[in-house]
Amino acid sequence: MKTIAKQTKPRLQSLLDVERVFPDEKTCIEYMIQKRWNGKPKCPRCNSEKVYRYSDNKRFKCPACDKQFTVKIGTIFEDSPLSLQKWFFAIFLLTAHKKGISSCQLAKDIHVTQKSAWFMTQRIRELMKSNSFEKKLNGTVEVDETYVGGKTHGKGSGYMQGNKTPVFGMAERDGELRTQVVKYANGKNLKPIIRQNVSKDAVLMSDEFGGYKDLNKEFKDHKVVTHSKKEYVRDDAHTNTIEGFWSLLKRGIVGIYHHVSPEHLHRYTNEFEYRYNSRKANDADRFTQILSQCEGRLTYATLIHK
């Protein structure tokens, strides 16, 4: 039977499976060594592979830079007093739940404080962001903007409400989706994002919003549906894909998180974007993918802007 160190893709269908496959801290450490360094630990500071392991099997020593380190150093787990097992539970729960999981519920499930659970989920969401895209969206790409925030009665709608935050999205039909929180939803802000993320050979689909004017001059084609005239589908012209994603995002925020502050909204959109783009993957695949990209830190001071 394979050891856990060799199981780079363990079978995980429920939280009970996570507890069975990773029953203790030692097992989690061995898995991280395999996942992060392919079974051969190296110094995260100087990348030296000539390292020594202490008898406690938790710490390593690098003779080159004379520093000690663990598998947590240089990852989202760094400086966390919580066990890797609890981190594994949190990652599985956040990625497996279709609409996410609140910090209050996570705190109860893994026996930590709500503050710790909130910090954990924000760190995990940081891993979900789309760091770089070598391949631009192509084919038929729908673009649209939405506004996320509380209700302000009697003060207009969309950008007219001061407590709404604009989010811009681009969805390749039967492909990936990308989102970005913007300060203002206008042509000056949106067009550079489209140019950066969408191939010139793509056919764009949008509503009649003025910020998308003249995109047909830069891309293969640009088809517009006039929502103000109750036109939502015209042949293959529609924005139903991206609008369906907005529904998922808002239902998740309203139903699970209830309120998301503007300064943290981009991390929540990262979460829903990641879940949408990995919709064809199973829970185990999402879990292993997040752990494979766990390098990078998000300190609490940075998170709360101190």
Description:
The chain has helices at residues 15-21, 25-37, 84-96, 103-110, 114-128, 187-197, 240-257, 265-277, 283-292, 300-303, and strands spanning 52-53, 60-62, 67-69, 140-149, 164-172, 177-181, 203-206, 221-224. A hairpin with a 6-residue loop joins strand 1 (52-53) and strand 2. Helix content is 37%, strand content 13%. The model is unreliable at 1-6 (pLDDT under 50). Helix 3 crosses helix 5 (114-128), helix 3 packs across helix 9 and helix 7 crosses helix 8 (265-277). It contains ten helices and eight strands. With 306 residues, it is α/β, with parallel strands linked by helices. The chain has a five-stranded mixed β-sheet, sandwiched between helices. A three-stranded antiparallel β-sheet has the order 1-2-3, with no helix packed on it. It folds into two domains: 4-129 and 284-303, no CATH class; 140-260, Nucleotidyltransferase, domain 5.
> What is the makeup of the main sheet?
5 strands, mixed
Got a strand count? 8
The side-by-side strand order for the widest beta sheet comes to 6-5-4-7-8
Tally of contiguous helical segments: 10
Furnish the topology, listing elements before pairings:
Elements: H1 15-21, H2 25-37, E1 52-53, E2 60-62, E3 67-69, H3 84-96, H4 103-110, H5 114-128, E4 140-149, E5 164-172, E6 177-181, H6 187-197, E7 203-206, E8 221-224, H7 240-257, H8 265-277, H9 283-292, H10 300-303
Parallel strand pairs: 4-7, 7-8
Antiparallel strand pairs: 1-2, 2-3, 4-5, 5-6
Helix pairs in contact: 3-5, 3-9, 4-5, 5-8, 7-8
